[in-house]
Specification:
Layout (H helix, E strand, L loop, with lengths): L5 E11 L3 E9 L16 E9 L10 E7 H28 L4 H10 L1 H10 L1 H5 L5 E4 L5
Antiparallel strand pairs: 1-2, 1-4, 2-3, 4-5
Helix pairs in contact: 1-2, 1-3
């Protein structure tokens, strides 16, 4: 059971390795649970697959499980993916505009500044992923 400090999703185990399980979860936006989603094109639901340490639990493929992650960890992911790049873009834009660069040039260089940022995030993805730890809970009634 989740509390106010965790985010949880129900999923199904696809495969199990030595100490890790690949779990398939349905990720949906807030729109996907709306009663008017059939008439709206904004509804979004997608299936995602994540690798979760089993933590000594014995799980089998096809079993229903709950995947948990701390909310602060989710906020850290949002910061790395969206907040820090936004600040980088704005800082470069302000500096170049203040230095007298044209608007088009400043805008293009601001966008170009995101390339090394996201390339660095990509190259450090294994190190970054160690900070994001998921927990796995077996559900009592696997239907």
């Amino acid at each position: 059971m989740s509390d106010q400090h965790t985010i949880d999703h129900i999923g199904f185990v696809d495969s199990v390795d030595d100490r890790k399980a690949r779990v398939r979860i349905n990720s949906q936006s807030a729109c996907a649970s709306c009663h008017a989603k059939g008439a709206c094109t904004a509804a979004d639901q997608s299936e995602k697959s994540i690798t979760v340490p089993v933590g000594g639990r014995s799980v089998k493929p096809g079993e229903r499980v709950r995947v948990l992650i701390a909310k602060r960890t989710g906020l850290r992911a949002v910061a790395i993916g969206y907040v820090y790049p936004f600040f980088l873009l704005m800082i470069v834009l302000i500096i170049l505009t203040a230095a007298g660069a044209g608007e088009l040039s400043a805008g293009m260089w601001s966008l170009a500044s995101l390339v090394p940022y996201y390339l660095t995030v990509f190259l450090l993805r294994n190190r970054i992923s160690q900070a994001f730890t998921f927990r796995l809970e077996k559900l009592l009634n696997n239907v």
